[in-house]
Amino acid sequence: MTEHPPVIVHPPSSTGGRRVTVHGQIVGLAHGRGDVAEFLRRAGLCEPAEDITLDDPRLVEWRGGDLDDWPIPPA
Q1: Strands 18-22 and 25-30, how do they pair?
Q2: Record's superkingdom (predicted)?
Q3: Quick one: which of 39, 61, 38 has its CA closest to 50?
Q4: What is the pLDDT of residue 15?
Q5: What are phi and psi of 27, to 5 degrees?
Q6: How many Å apart are CA 45 and CA 68, to the nearest integer?
Q7: What are the C-alpha distances in Å from 62 to residues 41, 74, 75?
Q8: How far apart are CA 18 and CA 9, in angstroms?
C-alpha cells in the first residue's frame, strides 16, 4: 500500500475552492495558497506559515491540479 503525505489538497470544486485534509481530517476549504499554508500552520505541521514549502511532495499531495490551479467561483 502506498502511503500518502499528511496533507491532501483535493481537486478544485465547481463552486470555488479546494478541500484540504490533514491526516484524513477535513480542515477547511482553501481559496488559494495562503489558505493551505494557514491550515498547515494550524495543524502544527509548520511554523511560521511563511516557511511552508507547498510543493514538497512529502508534505502535500495536490490532486486535480497543482498549487497554481484555483477555480474562479461562479458569479
Answers
A1: antiparallel
A2: Bacteria
A3: 38
A4: 80
A5: -110, -10
A6: 21
A7: 18, 22, 26
A8: 6
Q: Model's pTM, two decimal places?
A: 0.86
Grid cell 498549487 — which residue? 67
| Pairing assessment for the beta strands 60-62 and 18-22 based on DSSP bridges | unpaired
DSSP state for residue 29 in the 8-state scheme: E
Of 68, 5, 30, 3, nearest in space to 42 by CA? 30
Question: Nearest-CA neighbor of 31 among 50, 53, 15, 42?
Answer: 15
**For residue range 18-71, what is the model confidence (pLDDT) as tens digits?**
999 999 999 999 999 999 999 998 988 876 655 678 999 999 999 999 999 887
E-strand ranges in 7-59 read: 7-9, 18-22, 25-30
DSSP state, 49?
G
